[in-house]
Amino acid sequence: MNIGIIGTGNMGSMLTHAFITSKAVKPSELFVTNRSIHKANDLKKISPEIHVLDTAKEIVKHCELVIVCIKPHEIHQLLTSLQTDFKPDQCLVSITSPVTVSQIESIVPCHVARIIPSITNLALHGVTLVSFGNHCSTEWQEKLINLFSHISKPTLISDEVTRISSDITSCGPAFFSFLLQKFINAAVEETSISTEQATLLAEEMIVGFGKLIEQKHFSLKTLQEKVCVKGGITGEGIKALESNIGDLFEKMIKKTHKKFGEEVNKISDQF
């Protein structure tokens, strides 16, 4: 099956890397394009067998599955321009959260799904958030689940939890990377440890933490209980966190949802 990727920015490039690394797709089955074509050509450094095409129309012409990895406000114009190029037996996947599958189905005559990836998929881990269109066949649903199972754990979601699900899976790595860097900075400022050593220790800690959860040694709750001995040093640290964290995450979620709402309103006006 030929797979086309329109847009080779961060997510488009990540998916290309992940599909090839996981052997989910042969490089010769991948067709890519980008508005700045040199970014698409850069992907041939992964494998010379990748096909770089000049336009999105050419992608639709050559591929059974087309994955659109562009900004939300650009999707309506792109799909409108390609409306007559799609055939009913093709499948279109969008990776952007503000655009619903029903909005896409209102324009193109083919099978439609929304699959929101995460940067963690580059390591062939993490989740992809899946929503199928009303007219997406069982056959295409199975093909998509199988494809994305090579690089992630595909998880079906409903429209009403799209934003918070994306906050957790897609934005989460950036949020917790920010918090971990703050942890490292505080360690360096308050003690004599070097930035390099603190960073190494923190990175190894977070990798080990993930392995403990992945291998089901502990749940988040039981892991905290295991480390936090009553009256011990970790407990004092937890008290400090409890006293200072306040409603940090509630405020963060409100901010992301406000921005999401603004994007949804702009997209709705387009459609």
Number of helices: 11
| Coarse structural class | alpha/beta
Tell me about the largest β-sheet: 8 strands, mixed
The mean pLDDT is: 95
Low-confidence stretches: none
Oligomer: single chain
Spatial strand order of the main sheet: 3-2-1-4-5-6-7-8
Strand content: 5-15%
Plain-language structure description:
Its main location: cytoplasm. The chain has 11 helices and 8 strands. The chain has 271 residues and is α/β, with parallel strands linked by helices. An 8-stranded mixed β-sheet has the order 3-2-1-4-5-6-7-8, sandwiched between helices.
List key phrases describing it.
single chain, 271 residues, alpha/beta, eight-stranded mixed sheet, EC 1.5.1.2, oxidoreductase, NAD(P)-bd_dom_sf
Concise summary:
This protein is of the alpha/beta class and 271 residues long.
Question: Would you spell out the secondary-structure blueprint of this structure?
Answer:
Blueprint: E1 3-6, H1 10-21, E2 30-33, H2 37-42, E3 51-52, H3 56-62, E4 65-68, H4 72-82, E5 91-94, H5 101-105, E6 111-116, E7 127-132, H6 138-149, E8 153-156, H7 162-190, H8 195-214, H9 220-227, H10 233-245, H11 248-270
Parallel strand pairs: 1-2, 1-4, 2-3, 4-5, 5-6, 7-8
Antiparallel strand pairs: 6-7
Helix pairs in contact: 7-8
